Amino acid sequence: MFESLNEKLESAFKSLKGEGRLTELNVAESIKEIRRALVAADVNYKIAKEFTDKVKEQALGTRNVLQSVKPGELMVKIVMDELVELMGGQAAGLNLSGNPSVILISGLQGSGKTTFSGKLAHHLKNTKNKKVLLTACDVYRPAAIDQLTVLAEQIGVEIFKDVESKDPVDISQRAIRYAADQKLDVVIIDTAGRTAVDEEMMNEIERIKNSINPSETLFVVDAMTGQDAVNTALAFHERIRFDGVVLTKMDGDTRGGAALSIKYTVGKPIKFVSAGEKMETLDVFYPDRMAQRILGMGDIVSLVEKAQANFDEKEAKKIESKIRQNKFDFNDFLVQLNQIKKMGDIKSLLGMIPGVGGAIKNLDIDDKAFSKVESIIQSMTPTERSNPDMLNMSRKTRIAKGCGRTIHEVNAFIKQFEEMRKMMHMMSKGNNMANMMKQMQNMRR
Prior knowledge:
By secondary structure, this protein is α/β, with parallel strands linked by helices. The protein contains 21 helices and eight strands.
């Protein structure tokens, strides 16, 4: 995410490396590169120009005040502050007033509205403890109703649908009445999209909104479409006056134009960002955290929040106790693996760690590698999973045949597991880092 923009901004800051102070000349050179980086990221030139003018003004205004700060570091700080401001300043919450609260989802076809509706329901259920009703109002695409039904079952929420009706206004009104009768907290209404903005589509979404008066209207847009996403958002906002934006497909080839331009152009905040198909991969949009990631600083706060949301505290204490006793087994490993998978794709998670994003940008980290490990463990008997030390060659051969892997792959995984178990046990006993590094070196020999 934002790899190209990050690289170009880093290049702009490098022009100040070795400089003793900020001058009009080196600031002008850096500003020119920053503007080019933004335009290359599909940010409108007018916005890029206004942004860099503010950065230049700040840089020249503080050059004689903060003499103890290195020029490159000062420029990074100024750019970060302006990025945060450009993207909205602070996180914008959802308006969940009403009984029930009604959230209307709008956007073009293919933007990820239906998947987002499921993710939002999952988010509200698990973080806000809300009872949610998903409502299928895309009456033109049968697959949309089927998809929403599958998602509702997957996350354990109710769905309101009527495959016979072709009136989304009527369906949405009946869904709200049903939610009120059943004392549900939130109704999420997934509406139809089109391949392009057209009058028929706009009239329909406008009629739905006027008939139900939602507490929150969200516009879902594909982040990979860049400046086109901004133009589409503006067209929608002129008709339905939405309250916030959702950027989907943030795990794709996202140049950053939409994230950086929408708030400025439409005047409405980005409320959520979404990546991938997993229901857990929905994040509240924090401008300061996004600015840090754009500048390659990582996002350790979001990483910790994801871990806290997905890791069971009781299970963690149980496993910690087993590690201390050197009894960590394959069952425990499988539990931890599943919890990590819930947090999202591994490359995105690693990118949140400061300093790691740039190091792994060219690496192809495939989450499917987990399936190999899982298949090996699942081919073991319950007794073998609980007693890793009993795995002799005949058992390993049987496991390899059972999971369709080679004996070399099984041996390699078991060896890695044993090394990891030793390291975790050492760390739990409080051994110092030097001893641990020595042990790690011995393992490699």
